[in-house]
Amino acid sequence: MTIYNIALIGFGGVNRALTELIAAKNQLWERDLGFRLNIVAVSDLYLGSVISPNGLDAKTLVDAKFEKGGFGQLSGGSAEADNETIIKTAPADIVVEATYTNPNDGEPAVSHCRWALETGKHVVTTNKGPVAIAAPALKAFAKTNGVRFEYEGAVMSGTPIIRMAERTLAGAELKGFEGILNGTSNFVLGRMESGLDFASAVKEAQKLGYAEADPTADVEGFDVRLKVVILANELLGANLKPEDISCKGVSGLSLSDIEEAAKANSRWKLIGAAVRNDDGSVTGSVSPKRLGLDHPLAGVNGATNAVSLDTELLGAVTITGPGAGRIETAYALLSDIVAIHSAGASSTAKEAA
Ligand SMILES: NC(=O)C1=CN([C@@H]2O[C@H](COP(=O)(O)OP(=O)(O)OC[C@H]3O[C@@H](n4cnc5c(N)ncnc54)[C@H](OP(=O)(O)O)[C@@H]3O)[C@@H](O)[C@H]2O)C=CC1
Ligand SMILES: N[C@@H](CCO)C(=O)O
């Protein structure tokens, strides 16, 4: 049985949910997946940082009501989030990056990933910034250092769009895709259809753990833009940057726009799309679209996401599933660790007696 030592960078909704899963399911994973997870370090802007080479008790971490700088009271702890020291020196096999997504330059998460990969640690992340903005460089660091950079949760949370498209649909010849790629905006549009005002609907999405730290990224389309870049570069072999993608969000839609659409048997949806052009280039876009009720994406509700992949050999293949949520996204991290384990990239993990 393998034990993976992990370091958590950021201890908000997603990494707390992963910690909850570790507390509840380590034994099950040991039996069914062949490994268990041991948290040897945590760093968080609000709580501080801690290294514990023997491991921190997951249930205690979740249950304790730490105040600001609270990790400073723990053995091996500090009231400051010393990410660089934690990432470079903690005895971790895997660094789990779940700090906030910076849609502009991806920092500080790009540096977090780089420090981990350079020091021979695998990285799993749900953070869209480093993947959209620095994936080629980070993949190169991973290769040079014989470790892996995994990021299934960066698009569609725990729903396996990236691995599904890359592995199971290999050879189907993808030509483009269109989809609902932001749980918050889709949830907000649905709540507005029930008559709730925009600001209250955004607050609900924040409470449910769907929204970004700054929900402007959700409602202005910046989050979808990152996801279009990730899917286009990963699946269509493009080399797009966020600024290459035209981008409009849902913040301009009023309750009367929503009502008018309903009267015309249609619904507003925020659509992210990319298509390969005849000359081989790839064009991406993000904008609200009024879809007729018979459109395959019109019935996608709440924080659910869906992507329709346009393939040469199969026609349209649509993947639907959770697009946001704490536990759902923590599952994406687990699926990345399963991928690392399955690839046999476990040379740094300890074999338990
Ligand atoms: N929630 C979801 O449904 C999904 C989230 N994601 C992505 O996963 C990541 C985590 O999401 P989530 O947990 O919901 O976000 P949260 O905002 O709940 O958590 C992020 C945590 O990281 C901390 N943090 C921010 N900057 C730093 C830093 N420089 N060093 C250390 N800690 C830092 C924050 O502290 P503080 O609060 O003090 O700033 C917070 O505790 C984000 O990048 C998000 O975009 C991806 C898919 C789905
Ligand atoms: N804020 C994002 C999280 C998932 O990336 C959303 O609502 O879709």
Notes on the protein architecture:
It contains twelve helices and 14 strands. By secondary structure, it is an alpha/beta fold. The protein has two domains: 2-157 and 328-351, Rossmann fold, CATH 3.40.50.720; 169-322, Dihydrodipicolinate Reductase, domain 2, CATH 3.30.360. Strands 1, 2, 3, 4, 5, 6, 7 and 14 form an eight-stranded mixed beta sheet that branches. The chain has a six-stranded mixed beta sheet with strand order 9-11-10-8-12-13. Strand 2 and strand 3 (48-56) form a beta hairpin. Bound molecules: NADPH dihydro-nicotinamide-adenine-dinucleotide phosphate and L-homoserine. L-homoserine is lined by residues 157, 182-184, 210-212, 218, 223, 323-324.
Beta percentage is 15-25%
The total of beta strands comes to 14
Question: How many distinct helices?
Answer: 12
Low-confidence parts? none
What's the overall geometry?
Answer: globular
Reported for the largest beta sheet, the result is: 8 strands, mixed
**CATH-derived architecture of the largest domain:** 3-Layer(aba) Sandwich
**What structural class do you assign from the helix and strand content?**
alpha/beta
Bound molecules: NADPH dihydro-nicotinamide-adenine-dinucleotide phosphate, L-homoserine
Q: If you average the pLDDT, what whole number results?
A: 96
What series of H and E elements makes up the topology?
Answer: EHEEHEHEHEHEHEHHHHEHEEEEHE
CATH topology of the largest domain: Rossmann fold
What would you report as the Rg, rounded to the nearest angstrom? Answer: 20 Å
Please report the first level of CATH classification, the CATH class of the largest domain: Alpha Beta
What is the distance, rounded to the nearest whole angstrom, between the alpha carbons of the first and last residues?
Answer: 8 Å
Total count of domains:
2
Helix content: 25-40%
Family: Belongs to the homoserine dehydrogenase family.
Pfam family, one: NAD_binding_3
Pathway: Amino-acid biosynthesis; L-threonine biosynthesis; L-threonine from L-aspartate: step 3/5; Amino-acid biosynthesis; L-methionine biosynthesis via de novo pathway; L-homoserine from L-aspartate: step 3/3
Protein name: Homoserine dehydrogenase
